[in-house]
Amino acid sequence: MLDNKGFDLWADGYDEAVGLSEESNVYPFAGYKNVLGYIYEVIMEKPGAAVLDIGFGTATLTSKLYENGCEVYGQDFSARMIELAQEKMPDAKLYQGDITKGIVPELHEKKFDFIVGTYSIHHLNDEQKVEFIKELLGLLNDGGKILFGDVAFDTREKLEQCKVEEGQRWDDDEIYFVLDELQQHFPGIKYVSKSYCSGVVVIEK
């Protein structure tokens, strides 16, 4: 797993690496544009929404929200990613912080209409995901939504099948969403599939 220094080094080539995987329709970024497009369309239904992006990277999604009038906040653990994102979104409020330690204190002072995370929450293990989602729910306005776009599966069986099929490409350091295992903690959780290995996890407050 890359640490923050690793992501700093990868930052300038990140979008290109994602694009190659997405265009080839292969794990892990198969369906990437459809994942981001779905999240964008949901958020655009609420003009001027306050959005918190967790692990925003180079702001591929968030910059489009910013350009279309959203109030953008973010947390990422890479200083270089923040630098690149801030260039695209000068007025966005972006903070450096490791999500394994939770949300930085500054962001607890705000309530959000949407909290998004695209290909970032897989750095948390299953127990950490549950606790992190509970923390995020406390930062949502009533009726707000958490939208996680990532490698994800309906069941553990489908995840294991994909792991076998991907072979050496599979990243054992990343821990992906399994919807039916999260339902016991969040009964209203939904999953919108966007490729054979990815989709959007939706949790509404």
TrEMBL record:
GO biological process, one term: methylation
Matching InterPro entries: Methyltransf_25, SAM-dependent_MTases_sf
Native source organism of the sequence: Pseudobutyrivibrio ruminis
Gene3D superfamilies: Vaccinia Virus protein VP39
Gene Ontology terms, MF aspect: methyltransferase activity
Keywords: Methyltransferase, Transferase
Domain Methyltransferase residues, every copy: 51-144
Pfam family, one: Methyltransf_25
Name used for this protein in its record: Putative AdoMet-dependent methyltransferase
